[in-house]
Design brief:
By secondary structure, the chain is mainly α. The protein contains ten helices and no strands.
Length: 206
Amino acid sequence: MQDVFKIYFAHRTVQVLWFVFFAFLALTLDLGVFRTHWWWLFLPIIIAPFYEWYAHKYLLHAQLSKKPGKFRDFQIRLHHGHHRHPQNIDLLFAPWLAIILHLTQTYALFALITWSFDVALIPFTFGILYYLFYEWMHLAHHTPAYQPKTIIGQKLKRAHMRHHFHNENYCWGITNYLGDLCLGTFKERNDVAKSTTATHISGYSE
């Protein structure tokens, strides 16, 4: 646990996001919307299992562009490189461009759902908190010295390791496996054949 927290809180991305979270929390409280619409904080928790599944499968594992350039480099930095070098700390955390795009689209989504720019700040703020939880869980999965204390945590870590080293087409969840269970992609090692492209996903060969 100490190893995970040491790396986690030393990373600039995490430090900045914690500052952003508290800044938006203060703004939400100042606007007074939290007192009357506090239940919207659960929206990111409800959406997260299925958003993780979708984003991991269709965005992070998207076919790598064959055209050299900034977009291809961005894809590699975003996720393809992480599968090639899963223990590289620099590749564990998303690049800032991806984080900004993610936060922008989630705020727009929450504004549509709540039909209010002010109320949308509630799920948006706690969505940032959930994203910080996501980054912690992902780091914990990739820290060999850390062994989860709970059965669910152990099961999640084993599933993520299967995704990386056995077959990259299953076990898409990071913080939970509800999306995988509902969509039929939670598989044990013996359920699917070993993939030859788990470390060279979607056309990436280094």
